[in-house]
Amino acid sequence: MLHRRLLLASPTILALPARAQAWPSRPVRIIVPYPAGQSADILGRVMAEQLTKALGQQVIVENKPGAGGTIGVDVAAKAAPDGYTLVIITISTHIIAPAVYPKLPYDPVKDFAAIANVAQTPQTLITSPKSGIGSVKELIEKARGGDLNFGSSGNGSAAHLAVELMLYAAGIRMTHVPFKGNADAQMALQSGDIQLMADAVPAIVGPIRAGRVTAIGICDHKRSAYLPDVPTVAEQGYPYVIAVGSIGLGAPAGTPAPILDRLAAEVQRMLAEPAMVDRLKTLYFVPAGESRGGYSDFIASEIVRWRTIVQVAGVKVE
After folding, report:
1. Which of 52, 54, 119 is nearest to 88 (CA)?
2. Cis link prior to 24 (omega < 30° from 0)?
3. Which CATH class is domain 27-120+245-313?
4. For the chain, what is the mean pLDDT?
């Protein structure tokens, strides 16, 4: 009897679980802050496909590129925290951007709730076959002997900072040419308009194997299983040139915890499935899988590390 009176006096006790269980009742969008074809977009589409199956609602990808990914992330930061807007989190948008953009329109920690780190991939230095540069040593020699250009997906991106870290370590200078996306920069590299760039492994395995670009160094502590013949930059004498990208899933701050917990659980379940692991490997990603709390801690620690790198390299974005 007492239990019945409590329920009648507090209708919200019934209403709250009902609302939580109702999510999602309509399509969910994942904002990818980069153009189609880049690593974040590739992984975002895999996540959308898998979450569509898991949630029973259509999960769609919206590409909103520009300004090193910060435009799309800002859109996500200002979206309603209702579980219907998710965003792909990358090293560029949430870890490097706070150090290079003095007027960043969002706070990567306060404005977002981390859900899960999905995959990691190292940046790889690649050169134009027309440049004749086939190693880090040859890159340094040519940079010291004349003007060279390097491209990236924009000021302050992971691709930009990976090269800046290399230039600082070697004590050389090159002219930075920003593009709207790494795909555009790679086209310029293949044509010989620029001589160097960095990009994540999934986006360059094909062009490397086809001979359209030349890989000269992996920016990681170890070689990539997908490019075993490419030495690390560390092997070539520069042990501190480490730039390993992470791609994860987040939501606007204030998104209800039950929704975040469910999404995190679904991602963890996906990453534990052999078929999903095999698919990520087919796409040249290294599966990650930290918990929500572990992913938040990872982002916070990486922000500190990359702020130091940006300061040492002297990179500034107005």
Report:
1. 119
2. yes
3. alpha beta
4. 89
